[in-house]
Write a structure and sequence with these properties.
Blueprint (H helix, E strand, L loop, with lengths): L5 E5 H21 L6 E5 L1 H5 L3 H7 L5 E4 L2 H9 L6 E3 L8 H7 L3 E4 L2 H8 L7 E6 L11 H16 L3 E7 L9 H15 L6 E2 L3 H4 L2 H4 L9 E2 L25 E13 L4 E2 L5 E2 L4 E6 L16 E4 L2 E6 L7 E4 L11 E5 L6 H7 L4 H6 L7 E4 L5
Parallel strand pairs: 1-18, 2-3, 2-9, 3-4, 4-5, 5-6, 6-7, 7-8
Antiparallel strand pairs: 1-10, 10-13, 10-17, 11-12, 13-16, 14-15, 14-17, 15-16
Length: 380
């Protein structure tokens, strides 16, 4: 039989999370007599590890998809997606432009080099572009001092028939933990771009789930939000769980107990004896390791569920296996089901927090050798 590990991907959970975000945007907008923001569902990194086609199906009601990889954008078009597709890093070399035109792709402009390439381009019909302002994230985007000139160059491309709409966008650095920093970034964005026409996109998951951020955008410009991690059932906030936010886990990493050991007091477990038993213990060996995408640096005590009961990781995670405490789960033996994260177990955020990382990394790091089982059934 195949090794007993798999990742269950719930398409209905993806749809639920998108609908939940959309419902919140709609409810708050109607209360304020505002237009409802449109939604780019972000599916970069192979749909945050959930698979491009699962993301396309789960986010069928989104207004558009946003990603990084040109090949993934083409796959979305060839799979039948006929709504907007945004390339968040834009294009990288002149030959990319033919693909943009052939597949009607929307793209970000964030550097002078891209504008220079665009100045020599030719295609029809015109495409949509988003000009990115660096408001303090200090990754991609034009500085506030350079933005107006960049916008003028984009207008020249529109005059040539290359562009249709020119949107304005930025990326918040601390929407998850600092209202003050985000408000300052929004101030810079408004002062720099407010007099320039075009739609606006500023909100990632954390900002989308914090109404005061997207409510700060004028209602008459046409706003697009860009939720990502929250659509997959993971929280962008350290102090609010996905469950508290009304989100469902879309990925469940599951395995089985493949061996049981009794360890006496003083006995060590795993490489380097990273855990030493203080009393006699019953230990389960799980078919999951860092080669499957489970974090090697997860410490003793990281939560895991076995046969429906929560327990803890013991010892160092190895390439193909890890060990769990079965001392208080006497009915669990070889073949007992294990949930590493997801439905019926700890959330991916709990595991990530224990391992000193974030849920994004764990979802995206799922190894190719782990078979994905796609579920079309509604979550329990």
């Amino acid at each position: 039989m195949p090794r007993p590990i798999s990742a269950s991907i719930s398409v209905p959970a993806l749809s639920h999370n998108l609908a939940h975000v959309a419902s919140q945007l709609s409810t708050i907008s109607k209360q304020g007599n505002r237009s409802v923001p449109k939604i780019w569902a972000v599916i970069k990194a192979n749909g945050y590890g959930h698979g491009i086609y699962q993301a396309i199906n789960g986010f069928a009601c989104a207004d558009g998809l946003a990603m990084l990889d040109l090949d993934e954008a083409v796959r979305c078009r060839e799979a039948g997606w006929n709504k907007p597709i945004l390339l968040l890093e834009g294009f990288f070399e002149p030959r990319d432009l033919a693909v943009l035109a052939d597949y009607s792709l929307t793209f970000t402009l964030h550097s002078q080099e891209q504008l220079d390439i665009l100045a020599h381009a030719r295609w029809t019909p015109p495409l949509d572009a988003w000009l990115k302002l660096n408001t303090g994230m200090n990754r991609l985007g034009f500085s506030p001092e350079r933005f107006s000139k960049a916008y003028e160059q984009a207008l020249k491309a529109r005059a040539k028939g290359l562009l249709r709409t020119i949107g304005k966008m930025t990326h918040f650095a601390r929407a998850d933990d600092s209202i003050a920093v985000t408000q300052e970034q929004m101030r810079i964005f408004t002062e720099t771009t407010g007099a320039l026409p075009g739609p606006v996109s500023v909100c990632n998951s954390a900002a989308t789930l914090t109404p005061q951020h997207w409510l700060a955008v004028p209602d008459d410009v046409g706003q697009w939000v860009r939720p990502g991690i929250c659509l997959y059932g993971s929280s962008p906030f350290a102090d609010r769980s996905a469950d508290e936010l009304g989100l469902l886990p879309a990925m469940t990493l599951q395995s089985q107990i493949i061996g049981v050991q009794t360890v006496q007091a003083g006995g060590g477990i795993g490489y380097g004896h990273g855990f030493v038993a203080e009393r006699a213990m019953r230990i389960g060996v799980v078919a999951c390791g860092y080669a499957d995408g489970y974090p090697r640096h997860a410490p003793n005590g990281t939560p895991i569920a076995v046969a429906g009961s929560r327990t803890r990781l013991l010892g160092r995670v190895s390439m193909d296996m890890l060990c769990v405490d079965l001392s208080d789960i006497p009915h669990a033996g070889v073949g007992a089901p294990v949930v590493l994260w997801g439905e019926g177990g700890p959330s991916v955020d709990e595991v990530a927090q224990a391992a000193g990382t974030i849920g994004y990394e764990l979802l995206c790091a799922l190894a190719p050798r782990v078979p994905a089982v796609v579920s079309l059934l509604e979550p329990a």
